[in-house]
Amino acid sequence: MVFGQVVIGPPGSGKTTYCNGMSQFLKLIGRKVAVINLDPANDALPYECAVNIEDLIKLEDVMNEHSLGPNGGLVYCMDYLQKNIDWLESKLMPFIKDHYLLFDFPGQVELFSVHTNVRNIINKLMKKLDLRLTAIHLVDAHLCSDPGKYVSALLLSLSTMIHLELPHINVLSKIDLIESYGKLAFNLDFYTDVQDLSYLQYHLDQDPRHAKYRKLTKELCEVVEDYGLVNFTTLDIQDKESVANLVKLIDKSNGYIFAGIEGSAVEYSKIAAGPLDWDYYRYPFFLLSMISFKLIFYPVN
Fold it and tell me: Is residue 282 part of a domain?
């Protein structure tokens, strides 16, 4: 049984930075990590890449050969990967036994909210290699400062959750920069809990761009509330506590916390229904890793 994360989100949401920071954190707490780059447009990788889709297909070559734009090229690349899934499976085999996997996907939102190729790739890997994956959907926190963009982010998050059918965590990334985009209309809890979106209506009506779509926006907000699936956690990738809290959520969602536990169904259920702040300090190297992680991002002058 192998555990890991499917990292997705719009362009600029910080997926590659997330994979770099998360891989460092996981290594520091004693896990072997393999980062798999499945974004053929990502040619500047800050992390050590265990598997790179560019060894199979390159976006630039696809665009030139088939006269496609970036979006069409990415769809083609994912279709090609789906048809050559055996290549990816063979590349992953050396890491299946004892590694934690991070899949860095492209930022084109249609790939994980409309098209079926990414979903099919993930499903085939999960069945063939017995993977336990959680989708980490990154959304730039600055969208909270614009009610219209925030509603769009909610709809994208909801459609992605329904489309991928995976354990799913929506993350407001770059939360440390949120104040630099302007003062929020409400407390941060309003944007993370996603409750009573009718309060957004007044602020949307103040913007001439949104006023004429008042009824449509109201209906869209009601769709999000009726499903009751979307909420957010926050992340500052340079803050060890922020990363640690997210890791706890992920480990609970994909079952990693149960992997080393032997016991009855009752004992499992106690952990599943228990508080989120389960004891990470039972892991070796955890205390030392907290210090090391801080030094990586905040080196002493």
Answer: yes
For position 118, which CATH number holds? 3.40.50.300
Residue 301 domain-assigned (yes or no): no
Residues 6+ apart with CB under 8 A from 209: 148
Q: Which one-letter amino acid corresponds to residue 87?
A: W
pLDDT digits (tens, 9 = 90+) for 2-55: 999 999 999 989 999 999 999 999 999 999 999 999 999 887 889 889 999 999
60-95 tens-digit pLDDT: 999 999 999 999 999 999 999 999 999 999 999 999
Q: How far is CA 277 from CA 21, 193, 248, 281, 285, in A?
A: 21, 19, 7, 11, 18
Query: What is the pairing mode between strands 33-37 and 100-104?
Result: parallel
Name the domain count of the chain: 1
Give the span between the Cα atoms of 134 and 113, in whole angstroms.
16
Domain extent for 123: 2-195+229-296
Whether the pTM exceeds 0.70: the reply is yes
Q: How far apart (Å, rounded) are the C-alpha atoms in residues 88 and 96?
A: 12
- Condensed to tens digits (0 to 9), the pLDDT of residues 189-235 reads 999 999 889 888 777 777 777 777 888 888 999 999 999 999 999 99
Torsion sign (Cα): 90, 95, 101, 107: negative
23's CB contacts (< 8 A; 6+ apart) are 33, 35, 47, 48, 102
Please state, in angstroms and rounded to a whole number, the distance separating the CA atoms of residues 20 and 160: 23
Task: Kindly report the length of the chain.
Answer: 301
